[in-house]
Fold:
Amino acid sequence: MQAIAQQYRQQTGQKLYVNDMSLNWGGVFDLGPGYGGQYWQSPHGEHRLGLNVDLPFSCNSHRQTMFNIAMANGGGAGPGGILVHPDHYHLRFVD
Structure:
């Protein structure tokens, strides 16, 4: 992710915004009763493994650049590659 963020910054002059990133050691985020549950089911079930992250469109205006950089840096290396959701890219890395 550091390489992706650095390249995005170099090419666009903007920070790369990331959300729903896995914990370094995996597992679910325990943010209290208002979170968890439904948020860690599909499509977020993968995030608990430490190999997935979402790149929201609302904060990152250069979608194609973001997609190309992510693909070049292994963000689509997992099964099915990068998933394109209506409001974000879901990156899959391999261990």
Observations:
- The beta strands are 52-56, 83-84, 88-92.
- Residues 2-92 form one domain.
- Helices lie at 2-12, 63-72.
